[in-house]
Amino acid sequence: METFARVVLILWGWRGIARASSSCLQFELTGEVSTPDPVQLIANYSAVSRTELFGKCAPSCLRDKDCNAFDICEGECRTIRGWIPVYEDSNPSNLCERHQIECDDEYYYDRRQEMCVLHYYCDFESVTEAGCFLTESHQDQFDWSRHTGATGSVNTGPSSAFLGSYYKYIETSGNYENNRATLQSTVAFEEKMYCLTLYYHMYGSTIGELIIATQDGTQTPVNHWSMTGDQGNVWHRLPGVSLSLDPHTKVLITAVKGSSLYGDIAIDFVELWPFDCPQ
Ligand SMILES: [Ca+2]
Ligand SMILES: [Ca+2]
Q: Looking at the chain, which residues constitute the CATH 2.60.120.200 domain(s)?
């Protein structure tokens, strides 16, 4: 309780700063988070007291229009670009307070446009996800599996999700080489450029291929990005694939099975931003 009271007092101080520097931007305390997405990190600052941390991160975030949130942690604060859902962590020593501009689910606040913008993402944390734009295709040979923890085979697949608890992967035991599993989009997009980002994990001696493609109606899909073979036992970020979409075009994320069971390919935290990828 004592901590909570202190936070409220500091927040009032911070709102004063925000009003003075910009047109009533309100960063709300939205929850407690643990490890941030490293790519979305803008800067880290350290200080002893919470007051000093607010004094460093709040104005720094206000000055930078790429900054959409800041975290106040023990001994440090960090400014963050883009939009990140709030994940709880079971380890209390990891916890930071996330302050961001709140929009409805499926939207994030774009400070350059000064509005909440529709934003699709799939983090696979629940079976039905409000903002997710992907579903299992039936035009393929098998389905992706939603999973938590390590996959059933050693020496292939991740040991845990990249963010949160769940991810999707292809289980390659019991499937035939070159069998494909596809996630396809289910929404009618606006006609414009989008930017797809995701995390992928491709660990195993017989990893097949991960492909990002688009399909206009029933035409042959067009590949925009692919990765083949073992990429080590680590989550990698795909920094962005620019996609020209319209109401008739689908996004396809396909994993292809390799020659043995050491071919588990996983993805997590798929985001589709409503603008072209930064160059
Ligand atoms: Ca996840
Ligand atoms: Ca399928």
A: 120-273
